[in-house]
Amino acid sequence: MFKVAVALILLVAVCHGQFGLPGGYSNKPELINTDFIQSLVVFAAEALSQSQNLFLTNLQVTAVQTQVVNGMNYKIGFTAQPTNPKFGTETKCEVVVYVPINGKPNLSSSQCQTS
């Protein structure tokens, strides 16, 4: 009985370490350089230009996390340069783009800091 309990605990620990917290975000560094993530960053930058009048160029993805919901949330960190120098020389953003199963992406949240 003790061996079964230990084996079960080890299995849970391995699965938790491999798959992350159920319902939480999982780091996905292998997605950083994909065309799909780049397209989501361009989408987010266009949304920021419309909603916050923040125009960005030279978008560089720095981090990607995913969360399975009814579709997928992509939490993406990226750096960029504002086109207007009065906003500084570098902007760091973290955005969440929700991609429904059969629908168009939606910018759920954004947080940018310019220096």
From TrEMBL:
Q: Which GO terms describe its molecular function?
A: cysteine-type endopeptidase inhibitor activity
What SUPFAM superfamilies does the database record attribute to this sequence? Answer: Cystatin/monellin
Start and end of every Cystatin domain? 30-87
Signal peptide positions are 1-17
Pfam family for this entry, one: Cystatin
- Keywords per UniProt: Signal
The identity of this protein, by name, is Cystatin domain-containing protein
Source species: Rotaria magnacalcarata
Lineage here is: Eukaryota, Metazoa, Spiralia, Gnathifera, Rotifera
